[in-house]
């Protein structure tokens, strides 16, 4: 027996390993099984180059638990180790034996980088004592047992061992008893080891017989050594990809389609990415791409290697060239990672362009599910934006699809305003905004459906990218002003008429803490609606963006929704209300207006006389007169407002026109809707 101290710079290495070196205790099993697989792969490499002459035989890695002895054992029939190699690879923590091995066999494609050393020491996160029973593949080698109780001291004894390879025996401590349970080990093997390239077994297969579980003779192999992403796309069918997806995500619907990655220069990268179906925009989930290194599971948090928009995808990526820290749990940032990220973006964009070109109809059918991914990509990745111009689509309210260039050609003649700006009309809800859509169509305009989660941001992005272009929601204004042209319709109302009718309609609009209405008048054709509700484009967009991202934009989110009640001053029903106003209160309002105008004229004269004078040069009498005039004008205005408000309250037609406008915007509900129905019956 020999004794010694592990070659570390600090005697506190084991507390550091237990607490800080590894991100999660459970990865110890991944490390130890991966080492066993590496040892088995190395034996295959040595055999293939003639340095190992014996029979390779069964290379299965075996996992066994003994609850009575409180041990967990990982066994392989790989290269094994001599006492000298234990000294080199285990006792000297800073040395990586695998790097030396790779350097020696770098021309051999099957040479695998092993992770002896620190990976092995993850076992002390869960074990109070660890033993290595090992016999080297080398002729005449002596089997040895290495033992350590979690202190820097270890012992090495010569032992008898019939078979080459290594058994790692962990004496599980009391704090980690769950790692002696079959269910927990099964879970970890399924998470970390399900695609390792060497068969891994855990116990025997079982079946139900006579109402109970019966153990069979056959080993229970827990992994698929030849997973789909390692095979050639030419050898795979669509059903193979769907089956693999169902294995990865058992509760999910079949994906829309997949992209098979197979890169060997300037770095190694394989994998399969799937575009999942999204039933609604709320169901977006990240952390669905699994990252592997040589078929060893690393993480499903791939933000540092996959462009952000592609983290919405599902699937598998495998690359030995992704740099990992000592625990293999976190990606390190370097140039290689950025190159891989850029390459994945390019591959995805090229594949989407290829699918679009080969089967545009099929692509259009899948667009509603693809739209979120592609818009997200165009918003966050400049290179993807440029490539996506070939296949990114716009959908109109008739369910037709266009590329941006195609759509521009269709609308440029009819939807260019007087300032030579191209106006894209859109709806965020085709049902609720139907009357506005119909009004736009009646003018010969086309309307896009922009009802997605990212569309408000995407519209802003397109306006920045495209010259002389703006997007206007179809209910942002009356149809005549959505795309202003040179020709205008003449108004039939005087300034006084508009002023009085503004008071009449303002008295009835449903202002509240959450909604604010401004009454405006527009000269529209007699066939247009008598009144309609619009929402100013800028403020609505700001509120929508505020609702999505919070933070500094909460200022907009806390403001009440602001609407315009736009009254068609040329509509016969509005003319009828005006006629009724003149008949019932016209003399009173005309008299008051005449007095107000006279007082305003006098006020203007005094203000003109004040021009060029300093405050102290203005006589007090003038100041008093101005104050008296302001008071009289305010009193007369209040009186006129009260008269017009009283007229409004008694006029069912005013209420009816406002409610019809609210109803067409899906804004008439509850008691207000009940009153509208009753009033409609009375009017009929």
Automatic annotation (TrEMBL):
Keyword annotations: ATP-binding, Chaperone, Coiled coil, Cytoplasm, Nucleotide-binding, Stress response
Coiled coil: 582-616
Pfam families from the UniProt entry: HATPase_c_3 (PF13589), HSP90 (PF00183)
Domain Histidine kinase/HSP90-like ATPase residues, every copy: 24-176
SMART domains: HATPase_c
Top-level taxon in the UniProt lineage: Bacteria
A molecular-function term among this protein's GO annotations: ATP binding
Binding locations of ATP: 31, 35, 76, 81, 96-97, 166, 328
PANTHER family named in the record: HEAT SHOCK PROTEIN 90 FAMILY MEMBER
Family the entry assigns: Belongs to the heat shock protein 90 family.
Identification of the protein by name: Chaperone protein HtpG
Organism the protein comes from: Saccharicrinis carchari
């Amino acid at each position: 027996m020999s004794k010694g101290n592990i070659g570390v710079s600090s005697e506190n290495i084991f507390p550091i390993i237990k607490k800080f070196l590894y991100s999660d205790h459970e990865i110890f099993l991944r490390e130890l099984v991966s080492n066993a697989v590496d040892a088995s792969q190395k034996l295959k490499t040595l055999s293939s180059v003639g340095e190992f002459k014996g029979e390779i035989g069964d290379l299965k890695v075996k996992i066994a638990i003994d609850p009575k002895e409180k041990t967990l054992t990982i066994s392989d029939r790989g290269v094994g180790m001599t006492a000298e190699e234990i000294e080199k690879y285990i006792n000297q923590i800073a040395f990586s034996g695998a790097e030396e091995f790779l350097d020696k066999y770098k021309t051999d494609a099957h040479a695998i980088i092993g992770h002896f050393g620190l990976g092995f020491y993850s076992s002390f996160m869960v074990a109070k004592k660890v033993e290595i029973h090992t016999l080297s593949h080398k002729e005449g080698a002596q089997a040895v047992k290495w033992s350590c109780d979690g202190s820097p001291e270890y012992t090495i004894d010569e032992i008898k061992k019939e078979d080459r390879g290594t058994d790692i025996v962990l004496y599980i401590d009391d704090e980690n008893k769950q790692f002696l349970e079959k269910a927990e080990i099964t879970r970890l093997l399924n998470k970390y080891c399900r695609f390792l390239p060497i068969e891994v077994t855990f116990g025997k297969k079982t079946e139900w017989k006579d109402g109970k579980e019966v153990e069979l003779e056959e080993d229970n192999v827990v992994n698929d050594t030849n997973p789909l992403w390692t095979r050639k796309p030419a050898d795979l069918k669509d059903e193979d990809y769907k089956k693999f997806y169902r294995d990865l995500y058992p509760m999910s619907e079949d994906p829309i389609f997949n992209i098979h990655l197979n890169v060997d220069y300037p770095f190694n990268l394989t994998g399969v990415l799937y575009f999942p179906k999204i039933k609604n925009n709320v169901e977006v989930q990240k952390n669905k791409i699994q990252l592997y290194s040589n078929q060893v599971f690393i993480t499903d948090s791939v933000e540092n290697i996959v462009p952000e928009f592609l983290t919405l995808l599902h699937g598998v990526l495998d690359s030995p060239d992704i740099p990992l820290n000592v625990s293999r749990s976190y990606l390190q940032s370097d140039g290689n990672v950025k190159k891989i990220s850029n390459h994945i973006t390019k591959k995805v964009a090229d594949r989407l362009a290829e699918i679009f070109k080969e089967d545009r109809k099929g692509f259009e059918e899948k667009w509603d599910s693809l739209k979120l991914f592609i818009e997200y990509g165009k918003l966050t990745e400049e290179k993807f934006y440029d490539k996506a111009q070939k296949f990114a689509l716009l959908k109109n309210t008739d369910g037709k699809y266009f590329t941006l260039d195609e759509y521009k050609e269709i609308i440029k003649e009819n939807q260019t305003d007087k300032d030579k700006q191209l106006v894209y009309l859109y709806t965020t809800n085709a049902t609720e905004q139907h009357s506005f859509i119909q009004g736009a169509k009646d003018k010969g305009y086309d309307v896009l459906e922009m009802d997605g989660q990212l569309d408000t941001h995407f519209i802003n992005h397109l306006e920045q990218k495209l010259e002389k272009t703006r997007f206007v929601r179809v209910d942002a204004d009356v149809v005549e002003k959505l795309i202003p042209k040179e020709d205008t319709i003449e108004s039939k109302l005087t300034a006084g008429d508009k002023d009085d009718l503004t008071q009449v309609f303002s008295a009835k609009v449903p202002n509240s803490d959450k909604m604010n209405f401004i009454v405006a008048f527009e000269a529209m054709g007699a066939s247009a609606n008598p009144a309609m509700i619009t929402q100013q484009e800028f403020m609505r967009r700001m509120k929508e963006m505020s609702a999505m991202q919070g933070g500094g934009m909460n200022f907009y989110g806390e403001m009440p929704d602001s609407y315009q009640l736009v009254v068609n001053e040329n509509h016969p029903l509005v003319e009828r209300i005006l006629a009724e106003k003149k008949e019932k209160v016209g003399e009173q309002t005309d008299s008051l207006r005449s007095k107000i105008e006279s007082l305003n004229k006098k006020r203007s004269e005094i203000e003109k006389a004040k021009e060029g004078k300093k405050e102290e040069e203005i006589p007090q009498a003038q100041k008093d007169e101005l104050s008296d005039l302001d008071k009289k004008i305010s009193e007369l205005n209040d009186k006129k407002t009260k008269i017009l408000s009283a007229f409004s309250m008694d006029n069912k037609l005013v209420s009816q026109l406002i409610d019809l406008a609210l109803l067409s915007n899906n804004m008439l509900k509850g008691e207000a809707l009940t009153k509208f129905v009753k009033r409609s019956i009375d009017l009929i």
